[in-house]
Specification:
Layout lengths: L6 E3 L6 H6 L4 E3 L5 H8 L2
Parallel strand pairs: 1-2
């Protein structure tokens, strides 16, 4: 493993459970909660 993290945003074809099942490190239904997204990206 490379240690890469991924962010999934369920604004397209895949929903939150599908993105989690695919192994996304952080999953959001949308980008509406800007602070939560930034916290995830910089944690």
């Amino acid at each position: 493993p490379l240690g890469a993290r991924s962010v999934g945003v369920a604004t397209g074809f895949y929903d939150v459970p599908a993105l989690r099942a695919a192994g996304a490190t952080h999953v959001f239904a949308d980008l509406g909660d800007t602070q939560a997204v930034l916290d995830a990206l910089f944690s």
